[in-house]
Amino acid sequence: MKNQEELQQISNLLIKENTPYGGYGIYFKQRKPYASVIWSNGGGWDHVSMCPYKRTHTPTWDEMCRLKDDFFRDNEVVVQFHPAKEQYVNNLQNCLHLWRCQSDDFPTPPSIMVGIRYGQTAGEVLKEAVEVLNEC
């Protein structure tokens, strides 16, 4: 997760409170207040949540990617969890969270199992798919 100085450089974030363990602020979209944002980095986890003020709107994939880019470094793997049902917590219907475990590298599937990367040739796709299938 980016440090306090880096977070202060986010052009569309008005920081209301910033402590060594996290903070909160207002995220702007097209110069208008769009969402509340809360971040923290305690208990072994980095965390950011976004709650749009318009309660009928849930953040889109692109909005969550922007949030990830603003708060985390390019090489950090960040996830949205879908826990077991008995672990569900949903205090705000349209609030989404990003998490990063501070102690471990989070395993990720090979990118070919997700889709084709921009610019990959058919030959590269086939080679990567064969390599992954041979590992199974």
Summarize the structure in words.
The chain is an alpha+beta fold. 21% of the residues lie in helices and 28% in strands. It has helices at 4-7, 61-71, 122-135; strands at 13-19, 22-29, 32-40, 45-52, 96-101. Strands 1-2-3-4-5 form a five-stranded antiparallel β-sheet, covered by helices on one side.
List keywords for this structure.
136 residues; alpha+beta; five-stranded antiparallel sheet; 28% strand; globular
Write the layout of secondary structure elements.
Layout: H1 4-7, E1 13-19, E2 22-29, E3 32-40, E4 45-52, H2 61-71, E5 96-101, H3 122-135
Antiparallel strand pairs: 1-2, 2-3, 3-4, 4-5
N-to-C terminal Cα separation, in Å? 33 Å
What structural class do the secondary elements suggest? alpha+beta
The succession of helices and strands, N to C, reads: HEEEEHEH
Low-confidence stretches: none
Biggest sheet: strand arrangement: 1-2-3-4-5
Major beta sheet, specifics?
5 strands, antiparallel
Average residue pLDDT: 92
Which radius of gyration do the C-alpha atoms yield?
18 Å
Helix segment count?
3
User: How much strand?
Assistant: 25-35%
The shape, in one word, is globular
Number of E strands: 5
Helix content: 10-25%
